[in-house]
Amino acid sequence: MSEQVQSIVDAVRCLDLELRRELAAALAAMATSLPATSSGRERLVASVRGKYRHVPTSSESFMDRKREEMRREFRSSHRIKFIR
After folding, report:
1. Across all residues in the chain, what is the average pLDDT?
2. Within its chain, how far is the Cα of 66 from the centroid?
3. How confident is the model at residue 69 (pLDDT cuts 50, 70, 90)?
4. How far apart are CA 59 and CA 82, in angstroms?
5. Which phi and psi angles does 24 have, rounded to 5°?
6. How many CB atoms lie under 10 A from the CB of residue 7?
7. Rounded mean pLDDT, 5-34
8. Which residue has the higher pLDDT, 40 or 76?
């Protein structure tokens, strides 16, 4: 068990019975709100993709493009400083 989980368990042990019941109900509600099937998961993912869901790119290639864009901006800003 991780230290973080152990810390949570220890904190829960300090709660009174009513608060433990409330926590158990909240955790049960969280567990049932997750899609149980892969199609449910796919629907959830499709619903939260946002306005770029139509863009056919992976997150890795997106980050590669952003890194290159930042490099160009950095170089450009440094050239301007040296020219002045």
Report:
1. 79
2. 19
3. very high
4. 35
5. -60, -40
6. 11
7. 86
8. 76
Taking the mean position of all CA atoms in its chain, how far away is CA 28?
21
Say which residue, 34 or 9, is predicted with more confidence. Answer: 9
Each residue's pLDDT tens digit, 25-53: 888 888 777 555 677 777 777 777 766 66
Kindly state the tokens that stand for 53: 């869901």
Q: Which residue carries 């863009």 as its tokens? A: 55
Region of 35 (left: φ > 0; alpha: ψ -120 to 50; beta: rest) is beta
For tokens 């400083």, what's the residue? Answer: 81
Name every residue whose Cβ is closer than 8 Å to that of residue 43 and which is 6 or more positions away in sequence: 35
Per the document, the length of the chain is 84
Burial class (CB in 10 A: 0-12, 13-18, 19+), 34: exposed
Compute the Cα dihedral for 55, 59, 41, 20 and give only its sign: negative
